[in-house]
Amino acid sequence: MKKTILLTLVTLIGMNAWAQKFAYVDTEYILNKIPSYKAAQEQLDKLSAQYQKEIEEKYAEVDKMYKDYQTEKVLLTEEMKQKREDDIIAAERKVKELQMKYFGREGMLFKKREELVKPIQDQVFNAIKEIAVEGGYAVIFDAAASPNMIYTNPRYDKSDEVLQRLGFK
């Protein structure tokens, strides 16, 4: 499948592409060979499990509140029912907020990942870039996920020409 996509890409680029040098790397293989990356991943997995356990405990508390409410519902006044329902909704909202705080787009786990893993990934990227520049490669593909370009020589970047043709500077 990857070979088919790569061959299609090369065909689409046209005859000028044959004059360019291409290469690929497997970043997953590279990262798994770096001990500090493995240690960071283990630390993140432990932190994630800890956060997940806390969230599950909080949801269990909300579930208990709801079950208790369902059991006692027939004995409560309308005012008491409303207060209990509001309390359950507020407790559930707090758990969801905590979940976002831990696992959200800008959550604590994301920030910890940025702190631990990003510097290692940056080092790998810089090494790939150095190899590309020294070897004269126009594009280096990442075979780990799909043939995505992770480095392109700016000399072959035609983005500014496209913008100029569209009338933008």
Give an overview in words.
Helix 3 (35-72) runs antiparallel to helix 5. This protein has helices at residues 2-13, 27-32, 35-72, 78-103, 108-116, 118-135, 159-165, and strands at residues 22-25, 139-142, 148-152. It has 169 residues and is mainly α. The chain has 2 domains: 2-33 and 118-165, no CATH class; 37-113. The chain is elongated. It starts with a helix and ends with a helix. It is built from 7 helices and 3 strands. A hairpin with a 5-residue loop joins strand 2 (139-142) and strand 3 (148-152). One of its GO terms (biological process) is protein stabilization.
List keywords for this structure.
single chain; 169 residues; mainly alpha; 2 domains; 3-stranded mixed beta sheet; 7 helices; unfolded protein binding; coiled coil; signal; OmpH family outer membrane protein; Skp_dom_sf
What are the segments in which pLDDT stays under 50 over at least 5 consecutive residues? Answer: none
Average pLDDT value?
82
Secondary-structure-derived class: mainly alpha
Number of structurally distinct domains = 2
Task: Please give the radius of gyration in angstroms.
Answer: 26 Å
Largest sheet: 3 strands, mixed
SSE pattern = HEHHHHHEEH
The count of helical stretches stands at: 7
Q: How many beta strands in the DSSP annotation?
A: 3
Strand content: 5-15%
Measured as a percent range, the helix fraction is 55-70%
Q: Could you give the order of strands across the largest sheet?
A: 1-2-3
GO molecular function, one term: unfolded protein binding
Keywords: Coiled coil, Signal
Coiled coil: 37-101
Protein name: OmpH family outer membrane protein
